[in-house]
Amino acid sequence: MTLFARRRHKYKSCATHLIVYAQIEQALERIDSSSKQNQEKIKAILKRYAAGEVDIDEAYYDLLEGGLIPMPQRCGMYAKVSSTAKDEVRLKEKIKKAFSL
């Protein structure tokens, strides 16, 4: 099993795209309240995502494993809403704007 497959399996119950998008947006909005070291880690991960180097799931898992976003609680309580290509474009544009990319 590849590292990515193991990560996906580890977090599969919590990784609905609704949660993923919301937590990545929160990390972006709250970046200034993080330590300088964590700010750099968050920026690096989000820049790789915005540049298309990693997909949203991999960016999410990197943020989770780095302790940069909290593990979602009560995952089953969230609506299972699928994301769209527009959602991903909007999120990438928000990241690019925040980091002046």
Our count of domains comes out at: 1
Mean pLDDT: 79
Query: How large a portion of the residues is in β-strands, by DSSP E?
Result: under 5%
Distance between the termini: 35 Å
Report the order of strands and helices.
Answer: HHHHH
In short:
It is built from five helices and no strands.
Describe this structure in words.
The protein is mostly helical and 101 residues long. The chain has one domain. The chain has five helices and no strands. It has helices at residues 3-11, 17-29, 36-50, 56-65, 85-98. Helix 2 (17-29) crosses helix 4 (56-65). The longest helix has 15 residues, at 36-50. It is globular.
List the SSEs and their pairings:
Layout: H1 3-11, H2 17-29, H3 36-50, H4 56-65, H5 85-98
Keywords, separated by commas or semicolons:
101 residues; single chain; globular; mainly alpha; 5 helices
